Amino acid sequence: MNTRSNYTLNFINFLILSIFLTVSLCAQELKTASKPISKEDRFAKLESKMIFPMIKGSKMTGVVPVDFINNVLSSETNMKIIFDFTQSTANNAQGSHVNEGLEEVARILNLHLAAGLKRDNLKAVVVFHSASLLSILHDEYYQNKYGNNNPNKDILNQLMKNGIDLVVCGQSIMLRELSPGDILPGIQFALSAKTTLSKYQNIGYILFDINEK
Fold first, then answer.
1. N or C: which end of the chain has fewer CB within 10 A?
2. How wide is the angle at C-alpha 179 spanned by C-alphas 175 and 164, nearest 5°?
3. Residue 137: how many CB atoms within 10 A of its CB?
4. What are phi and psi of 86, to 5 degrees?
5. Cα–Cα–Cα angle for 94, 97, 80, nearest 5°?
6. DSSP tag of 22
7. What is the dihedral of CA 152, 154, 159, 162, to 10 degrees?
8. Which helix (H) or strand (E) holds 161?
9. Main-chain dihedrals φ then ψ at residue 84, nearest 5 degrees
10. What is the secondary structure of 178-189 as a DSSP string?
11. Residues contacting 56, CB < 8 A, separation 6+
């Protein structure tokens, strides 16, 4: 094969390689561009601006200040909220991560205060049943199962210190063959979650469902 033929062949090979690399790069860029931004990523971008009027937890409990609102919550409003809480910690991270449902409870409370509501005008109750019971068990359970203390204690303690009532379903305790001593101190016991939810909604509490999406 002569020199000219070699040159032509090398040029063709180079051209094919260039096209392949270009197509691969474009495909990678398209894949990256089309990847949805996660909720965690969106919160992370604004974490430095966040405020925590009541409960201080991870960035997922924070509120981003907004300076262009014209639909305002009166500071004199009396607000009563009840949380129907059944969510367990995601991704089998019960022993190492705060229950995402608790973070959502904290954020909802923070949002109401950030909107201008007076702290004394906000009442709230969190009703634990179903899989959420795992998040309110004492440290001994966590030490035996995971080798560390309950990671939810800080948020739970902050909730109680702020006057938020935490109530656990007695039916869930019995069906899971637990006892009152297995539950962290300060949490109230009710016959059932259903009757507790009815009790508070009957006197005007607004319901928020906290369950796995």
1. C
2. 95
3. 18
4. -120, 0
5. 95
6. H
7. 180
8. helix 153-161
9. -90, 100
10. --GGGBPTT-EE
11. 158
CB 94 within 8 A of CB 88: yes
Q: Are strands 165-169 and 206-210 parallel, antiparallel or unpaired?
A: unpaired
CB atoms within 10 A of CB 68: 4
Query: What's this model's pTM, rounded to 2 decimal places?
Result: 0.83
Q: What is the 3-state secondary structure (H, E, C) of 51-110?
A: ECCCCCCCHHHCECCCCCCCCCCCCCCCEEEEEEECCCCCCCCCCCCCCHHHHHHHHHHH
The first and second tokens of residue 152, run together, are 């939810």
Q: How far is CA 204 from the centre of its chain?
A: 26
Residues linked to residue 188 through DSSP beta bridges, in sequence order: 167
CA angle, 32 then 103 then 86, to 5°: 105
d(CA 180, CA 184): 9
Q: What is the pLDDT along the chain (213 residues), one digit of tens a residue?
A: 555 565 665 656 666 666 666 666 666 665 555 667 888 899 999 999 999 999 999 999 999 999 999 999 999 999 999 999 999 999 999 999 999 999 999 999 999 999 999 999 999 999 999 999 999 999 999 999 999 999 999 999 999 999 999 999 999 999 999 999 999 999 999 999 999 999 999 999 999 999 976
Q: How far apart are CA 94 and CA 102, in angstroms?
A: 12
